[in-house]
Here is the input.
Amino acid sequence: MTTAQLDTAQVDSSVIASARNLKKVYGRGSTTVHALDDVSVDFERGKFTAIMGPSGSGKSTLMHCMAGLDTVTSGEVLVNGEAVSSMSQRQLTKLRRTQLGFIFQSFNLVPTLSAEENITLPLDIARQRVDREFFNKVVQAVGLDNRLRHRPAELSGGQQQRVACARALVSKPSVVFADEPTGNLDSTSSREVLTFLRSSVDDLGQSVVMVTHDPVAASYAHRVLFLADGKIVKEITEPTPDSILTVLSQLTNAAGEKH
Amino acid sequence: MLRVALRNARAGLLKLAMSIIAVALGTSFIVGTFALRDVLSSTFNDIVDTGLNGATYVRPNDADATGLEGGGGDRVIPAALAQEIAPLDGVAAAIPDYSGTLVLVGSDGTAVGGGGGAPTLAFAYLADDPSLRVTDGVGPASAADIALDTGTAESAGLAIGDETTVIVAGQIREVTVTGLVTFDASLAGASLVLLDGQTAMDTFAPDGMVSTIAVYAADSAGNPVTYPDLDEDTEKSLTDAVRSTVAASDLAGDDFEVVSGTTMRDDSQAQIDSMLGFLSTFLLVFAGIALFVGGFVIANTFAMTVRQKQREFAMLRAIGASPGQVFLTVTIQAVMVGIIGGAVGIAGGYGLVHAIRAVFNTMGMELTDQIPVTVPIIALGLATGVLVSAISAAIPARRAALTAPVEAMREEAAPVLRPSWWRIGIGTVLALGGAGMVTASVVIARNDDDASMGALLGYGAALVIIGLLILSPILAKPVVHITGAPFAALFKPLGSLARGNVIRNPKRTANTASALMIGMALVAAASVLASSVTLAMKAVVAEELAADVIVQSQSFEISADAVTDLNNLDETAEVNSFVVAPVSLTWDAREATDGEELTEPPAELNVGGTEENTFPDLWFTDPVAGDLAAVGNGELVVQESTADTYGWELGDTITVTGSEGSVDARIGAIINSQALGIPLLMSTDLLADVAPANETVIVNLLINAADGVSDAQLRDALAEAAKPYYVLSIYDQEEFTSMLASQVNQILTILYALLGLSIVIAVLGIVNTLALSVIERTREIGLMRAVGLGKGQLTATIMIESVLTALFGTLLGLGAGVAIAAAMPSVFANQGFTELSIPWGALMSMVGLAVIVGVLAAVWPAWRATRMPVLEAIAAVE
Here is the structure.
């Protein structure tokens, strides 16, 4: 599956989320910025996809639009077959409860709740029963068994981010969106979080989309998409830090030649 | 930097609106209080200046009466003294005060001022009295004439030539209005009637004794000169002359003195001012609460703006602004808020006074229309507004100024506040000290019936409240934890989220709730008090009032003719009366034991008289000692409290002396009756031996129906017979208790008004706190929305927070109020407060009110929170 085949792709059981001719324009007239310029992309079910690109390339905007956190100027976003881009606030809330999980760069937890309460928060909000077995499995996987009663302030940055990961997974969403999840972490904590995200894909069959600018973080993914100036310009599968760095430097050179 | 500050203030003026409202509210109460005080003070001072405009006065020693209330002072001055003063050089007139109260019937056939309140005063019309001028018609010349004050004539709907009825000394008289007089001041609701000199003299000074003599100076032409045209030297020399004349007179006595008009006026004004001082203190306490919460709202608002502008401040610091300059940019905005809020508040304060004046006017109490707009009051209003704002903004301003630029750019959450030991210490000492004082007052009062522990209880209560206010940030966590439990259980997971938010900053929660706490404490104490007093009264009346009906008069005096008329009815079997008359008492003082101080005999005491069979046929009270047949045996019945005060015992002999004579009587019974407000009782016949009829006032009639007469028949007959007397009210037992209860409830109404005020302030505070906390939690809210929190759920969370805050203040306040009120039955047992009754229904509705207040206060902050776009919320301050 490549970007060239997208136009003909119908609802495909191997695709968990997709964008069609997605445009996002900020400003008007001479100050117009095309944050996303006719982007079409599919994210595969049960795969870990990374989105990379230089600052201002539109990688965060793409993720926000995919996740229904931001509105689109034109085009269509589908998550698990549902058209996100045309949803009302109420439908979006429902979508977030049932289909999506989020991990942010920082300030990921509610400070007044314990780690356990934070993890079950999406289920509590949606008034759904907590699947204890799955909960334990997730908690064990992130290694938080003995930290559940702690408040976020009593946890390290890595532990907080692992709580956030657990929270994103516990409601068994169709897809987890992670926005620079390791941006605020040291290398050890980063490794823990990324390893966990990868294993959630490999072991639990979760689909994960992650935005990052760190080649090492991106190398944990199955596939890396490269954005520049609001367009998808390149993708590689089964990446390594080196192969990613090579592509990045090519992109930088290409950009230099263009100007 | 000034430009930055002003630009900021202008841009944020709308955001500062809440601060401005808060300052304006507090300021308007302060300004209103002082202006109202001035209005009342000048109203009463006008009356004093107009009524007491003589050069010299003869007045009783230790005079505590203003001389305005007819017959207010002790009547110890021989009126004949006036005839000795009048011929002195420079004296225009010496006017004895022949005055008292009467009932005037207006053109609508009802008693003027009949609803209680301001009295109808009667004065003698003496042609040479310069304090009253007949402006229309002629003064009253005979018992069939009266003159009216212009205002009184208007409110009574009477004009010159009209015929009407007055009831003077219990006698119904048909009279004609012959003239109108002008009194150059607002009478504060009192009505004024002039009787001819002889009638007034016969009625109000039958023994020739009066309470004051006013002496007026004459100018060279012999015309009277009155204050304020009087010069000081004239007044002084005239006073000296009168003093030596009085001292040399055969009529001289120890119990009266001669003072200058200035002294007389100053004393009256001082007395009025001290009465008003109490009122202002009470109002200022509320102004203080308003300002405290106002200051807190300001501090909150500025904390909010400072947070929002943290990066801007950091940038300013980074490019070289000093901390002082940053501090100033914030403080200048606060000063602007103070000036605007203060100005609005001053206008509001005067508006408030106008409104109060209008309310008083509709109640027939006319206040002066000159509302003083004085520089000190305006300065006070502005200074309060500016100071409160500047001080309140200082802490956030300091934070803005001192945060290092880099720190400001990356700071995330609000700093966690730890409870300070200082707060715990002081708060605990005050609260426990206050509780100790309350307990002490209860213990002392229980052991010693005579001990008057009201003051100790009051100070203790005040300390408890202040201590609780200081402790409330520490109490917030456990209390909200418990009150939040039902919400946490009912609304999962919103309840526990909301509870966590309320507990997160306990100091802020406590400050927010403080206005409600004080208001609720006050109302709880008052409603417990009212409910207990009502209950006690009902119990006593039910037990003691054996008669079918009781009759009272709105003028507090029942005419003797009315008694005769009612007695003559076929429907009545017995018409007994309680009468009171002033007497003096003497007795052989018992040897004081155990160094116990026995109270000196009073100079004059109002004692009661009643028919021999009143006890127990119409009034039942179980004697503590002796036998109630004592009344019939020419013996005395005394209240236990009175006996204790003077050290009397059963069997003692007391000498009762009145204007008519003196008798020795034995104490034949000691009673303890809360409903019978008379210290000492004897038979009417015995009282008549010592006190003349004109000094004896009939206060109550107890009536039993004749055999076979139904209650309804009795009432109809009584109502018909009482009609010509205009002011008589007929109550059966139930009506009597509900009449007493409604008097108690009237006082409660005032307190409910003040509670209303504290609710308005509390709502402002809660709205502000929620708005602040929504802004502080922008990212948290965004996060929760991202993980699926719906708008309705967000609204519910914020409303629960608000309700929990309101409930915290309410429960703390109600708890403190009820606890303090629970001490009252012991402390005030000797004042008829025997049983504790806690009005649970009323208290529960207060809690319900708190919930409503909480929900209302949350509407706007919740609406704002739901309108925040999810992405922006998450990205905020990143």
In short: The longest strand of chain A covers residues 15-26. Chain A touches chain B through 30 residues (CB under 8 Å).
